Amino acid sequence: MDPDLDKTVPTITISAAEMTEQVSSPFPSVPPSPMSSPSKSVQTITLGTSGPTVSSLGIGTWAWGDKLFWGYGDKYGEAELEQAFIAAIAQGITLFDTAEIYGLGESERLLGRFLKNHYQRHPEQSLQIATKYFPLPWRFSPNSVSDALTASLTRLGVNSIALYQVHWPFDFLLGQPKLMKALAAEVKRGRIEAISVSNYSAEQMRNAHQQLSDLGVPLAVNQVQYSLLSRGIETNGVMATAQELGITILAYSPLAQGLLTCKYNAATYQAPVGARRLDPRFSKQGLEKLSPLFEKLQAIASHNGHTPAQVALRWVIAQGAVPIPGAKDASQAQNNAQALALSLSAEDIQNLSVISEEIA
Ligand SMILES: NC(=O)c1ccc[n+]([C@@H]2O[C@H](COP(=O)([O-])OP(=O)(O)OC[C@H]3O[C@@H](n4cnc5c(N)ncnc54)[C@H](OP(=O)(O)O)[C@@H]3O)[C@@H](O)[C@H]2O)c1
User: Fold this and answer.
1) Which residue among 221, 253, 310 has the greatest number of ligand 1 atoms within 8 angstroms of its CB, and so is best to mutate?
2) Is the pTM of this model over 0.70?
3) Which domain holds residue 187?
4) Known catalytic membership, residue 252
5) Fewer CB within 10 Å, N or C, the chain?
6) In a domain? residue 282
7) 187: number of CA atoms within 13 Å, CB side?
């Protein structure tokens, strides 16, 4: 099973509008990251009601070390990824999303090496790392959470992280109440600053929120799929419930795995690398169906002097969610990060919403 072939998404505690110096949060005991101001002014957001403050757009690292789905080691490798990491930070991005299963630990290991180099160069700049726990069937003891976190922290080379996320709402033998209790214990122990779930339905998210509230710890985030091509959370209750409970939505696959960059299109057909070849949306016919949305993205982008990817990411931010687009090199990271510099009119946002509904 590929854990990232999923569907869902968005929320919302915004501070998107203001240009502020980021004030990071803090575990005083945590080397190697002195908490202080970032490299430049950037839009920031507080995760949940009292979680860490992060850039309003993060970078996803599923493709970092993943050969099977994304083709790591073919057209891009560690050098390109470190340049992506550096380019994102140069644009003021401080949030990086990974998971223990990405590249079977390789994504965390790469990020750990990049973090080490970063803190040697810039000990004054703090970053926020979000990683994920995968609820495997044989992880039936609460110690599994602690052990998995220890392994992730070791690969990342840090003593604590901003966000620890339950990758999927699987129960197996451990059960959600015990899982939430084990996570809350790690917050109290200081190894994680805030808790997130991922791919949780509205009801599952509400239950997790209640279980954690009973333990005095808020649920900060639900990470779900959300983009102009995946708007399920707007109607399945996830977005509304997140807003009601003060839970932030982290929007994964915000570029629909590259589709919303408009570089895959019917006119100049090229197949994507890796497992996306199996996705009918990437077929010539699938791309033809999406062409009205591509045309609108391109028109808005050229009018604003930006790119379709930036317009698509800004649309996500306008819905109150925090997009975490993947990036394989410096150019993609910089391009995506600069979505924060784009301002879309209410009319543009509305037009995009309408077209995306029409082609769905
Ligand atoms: N919680 C979960 O279950 C879950 C599931 C999926 C993803 N995620 C997280 O969300 C992150 C983002 O999702 P995603 O990687 O699936 O999809 P995505 O962000 O929608 O698309 C990423 C891909 O699009 C292409 N791309 C990105 N920016 C580009 C640009 N500016 N110009 C041209 N091409 C660009 C790159 O692939 P090509 O160059 O090969 O086209 C890149 O790998 C992941 O890295 C991961 O951290 C979480």
Assistant:
1) 253
2) yes
3) 44-252+321-326
4) no
5) N
6) no
7) 24
